[in-house]
């Protein structure tokens, strides 16, 4: 843990030093500038190596400990990349400026009055060619920067397109969830409606069966009353008959009543049984 802290502190100090040295390049003469650029090239490589070592150390610790240094590593990498780009731009600007004024410096080494006309013209042509070369170099750098900007814009457009796709997917998902919720509510409403209808049908059916049972019971009682009337009339008309005959008629009459009553009760049991089976089939 102490090694990681030391590496982080050292990188912070190195990046601050690198930033200061890059800022001083503009104030130096060409000779000192070139020397400083060479030293800074080595220093940039050293900082990059230390950054990689720091990243390796962060990845080697546990996940819980690594989370503490992830943000620090990200900030150090970002600062290093910015300083590196700034340093490259300084080098390009210094090289172009050196090329631009190279011909003029050569020309200033001698007094123009000591030169022949043709020699002056030749030097001017060389200076012009150097200037054109420097301008073409600057134009090439500008084109490269424009290409980099176009690539960055393309990447940004691609990211925006992906974000739009994610947003569209999220909206579609939200719409599907709302539609599903609506279907579930409709399904539950239909279930409740079906249950109510089933209950009503069962109640109506029970009422109808009850009425039928009452009607059947009433008809049976009427038949029993008719049998009693017929039996009494037969008894009155056959008073002179023997006791054996009377007892036989009474026995037959009682047998008929029991048969009717048995038929009545049996029908009721069958109807109630059928009703129970029907209700159970509906509920199941």
TrEMBL record:
GO biological process, any: intracellular protein transport
Ranges of biased composition (kind: Low complexity): 233-252
Membrane-spanning intervals of the chain: 196-216
Domain T-SNARE coiled-coil homology: 125-187
Example of a GO MF term: SNAP receptor activity
GO CC aspect terms: endoplasmic reticulum membrane; ER to Golgi transport vesicle membrane; Golgi apparatus; late endosome membrane; SNARE complex
Pfam families, A to Z: V-SNARE
Main localization category: membrane
Coiled-coil stretches: 1-93, 142-176
Region entry Disordered, spans: 232-252
Keywords: Coiled coil, Membrane, Protein transport, Transmembrane, Transmembrane helix, Transport
Claim: Transmembrane helix is one of the keywords in the record: yes
Classification via PROSITE patterns: T_SNARE
Protein name: Vesicle transport V-SNARE protein amine-terminal protein
Species of origin: Tetrahymena thermophila (strain SB210)
């Amino acid at each position: 843990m102490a090694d990681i802290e030391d590496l982080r502190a050292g990188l912070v100090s190195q990046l601050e030093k690198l930033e200061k040295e890059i800022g001083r390049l503009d104030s130096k003469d060409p000779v000192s500038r070139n020397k400083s650029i060479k030293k800074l090239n080595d220093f940039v490589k050293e900082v990059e190596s230390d950054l990689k070592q720091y990243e390796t150390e962060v990845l080697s610790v546990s996940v819980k400990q690594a989370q503490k240094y992830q943000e620090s590593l990200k900030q150090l990498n970002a600062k290093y990349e910015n300083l590196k780009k700034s340093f490259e731009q300084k080098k390009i600007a210094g090289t172009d400026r050196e090329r631009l004024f190279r011909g003029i410096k050569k020309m200033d080494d001698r007094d123009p009055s000591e030169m022949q006309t043709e020699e002056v013209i030749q030097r001017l042509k060389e200076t012009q060619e150097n200037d054109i070369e420097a301008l073409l170099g600057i134009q090439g750098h500008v084109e490269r920067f424009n290409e980099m900007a176009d690539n960055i814009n393309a990447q940004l457009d691609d990211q925006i397109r992906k974000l739009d796709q994610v947003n569209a997917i999220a909206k579609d998902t939200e719409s599907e969830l709302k539609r599903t919720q609506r279907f579930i509510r409709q399904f539950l409403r239909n279930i409740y409606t079906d249950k109510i209808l089933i209950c009503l049908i069962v109640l109506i059916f029970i009422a109808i069966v009850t009425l039928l049972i009452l009607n059947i019971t009433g008809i049976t009682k009427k038949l029993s009353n008719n049998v009693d009337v017929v039996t009494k009339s037969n008894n009155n008309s056959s008073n002179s008959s023997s006791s054996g005959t009377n007892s036989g008629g009474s026995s037959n009459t009682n047998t008929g009543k029991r048969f009717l009553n048995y038929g009545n009760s049996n029908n009721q049991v069958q109807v109630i049984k059928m009703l129970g089976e029907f209700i159970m089939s509906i509920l199941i």
